[in-house]
Amino acid sequence: MTARLVAGERSLAPAELDEQVRRAAIAMASAGIEAGDTVGLLLRNDFPFFVASLAARWLGAYATPVNWHSTPDEISYVLRDSGAKILIGHTDLLSPLTSLTGLPPVIEVSVPRDIAAAYGLTPGGTFPNGTHWDDWLAGAQGDPPTAWPFGLSAMIYTSGTTGRPKGVRRAPLTPENDFAQQAIFEAAYGLSADQPMVVMMTGPMYHSAPNSYGLTAAGSAEKIVLQPRFDAERLLELVERHRVTHMHMVPTMFVRLLKLPEEVRARYDLSSLRFVVHGAAPCPVDVKRRMIGWWGPVIHEYYGSTETGLVTVHDSATALARPGTVGRALPGVTVRVLGEEGQPLPPGGVGDVYVRSIAVPDFTYHGREDERAAMERGGFMTVGDIGWLDEDGYLFLCDRRRDMIISGGVNIYPAEIEAALLAIAGVRDCAVFGVPDDEFGESVCAWIEPDEGVTLTKENVCEELATRLSRYKLPKVVEFAAELPREDSGKIFKRRLREPYWSGADRTI
């Protein structure tokens, strides 16, 4: 079973989706793509994203979605590093690449009207020497190769804070992996073919979690509604119009929704919602509480990473009873918190979070196996998160080790400061990170996006923070911006804010 895809006034029926996937698999095979090869995707959430991803999976090839906010140099690097044999992209995203050499053969996708309207673009467009997507599919003749029994996961490139991104390349799924994954997706995402579901995609599928969520939904939901670009009130309108039952979100979206005037929030019928899951970033406790108060006990949270897969989950009742937790280990997952010498820590002990899961095949960083080996201890993997377990096995995160600020030998966690900032009236959003400090090594820097029409100063922000945080956690540098740099999901590009401070430093971030 495949879902009906809906975007604006466009619709792609399940039979049409199946036929396009079959044709794309034929076209990919004709282009020389075999099992283990890579297909590059430079696409917004659109029908061809689903078609190309599922066709690559059919062939046992890796679909590698590229973050289309990246610079041409960054895109070129991912394409070269992954060995992509073709590149499928929207014409407006391809246009900055015209001066690049060494691109693989390009399949261009016209920008549809709904996406063009959301981004202020001109529909259509062409790319020099590209083959149009519609012509490419129409020219596919014959039968596709035999489909792989389970296919491969997408090879997602992790952004990181230093150096070039790394491709997470997984081994093929085994029947055991597949069985365990289905149980985890049902527990963490609420996705199950046993119940009618209308899913709305709100975040870009070049990220690993929306990618797995959307492609899983394609095989289990009745309908998937694609929101071309996150807009808080538009999301509420789409939920009401399509009677959406399931969504994947990030905390920034919650913050923006809660900023809507009360009369706007009350205007829409959201009673169809059954399972709204969020992850990817810490969610301030107050934001979670207010969302549950508004939408009811439909809010769930997971913790995981591109490397480890989904690790923990919890529901609304647990969020209220254990504020700040990211949940308890999913079926088939084991979580440990280890000290500096690798020793298991007792409940409450803060250390590095290590994970083992039977649901995900082993992986390597494409071409950088040494970095993969450095993450493992006794079969358990870490992505650098710091946290602790309570007596009942619920995990609480402090922050990423790479994001942690060490000032005068003291560990400071940006997530804690960001949560305190978001509780201040007039703060729409914020980003906290470490910057070089001659005396203390690092000091705290906060960038703040105020609500429209609100004037904030460093003095009144720090005065308010001093009632919530220890003095050593107060930001030394405070900057304000009408709009912080963001990805399409609304997530802040913290790296872009941080890089100028470290560009002339004698050590890297």
From TrEMBL:
Pfam hit, one: AMP-binding_C
Keyword entries, A-Z: Ligase
Residue ranges constituting the AMP-dependent synthetase/ligase domain according to the UniProt record: 8-359
Domain AMP-binding enzyme C-terminal positions: 416-491
InterPro entries: AMP-bd_C, AMP-bd_C_sf, AMP-binding_CS, AMP-dep_synth/lig_dom, ANL_N_sf
Keyword GTP-binding assigned: no
Full protein name: Acyl-CoA synthetase
Species of origin: Amycolatopsis pigmentata
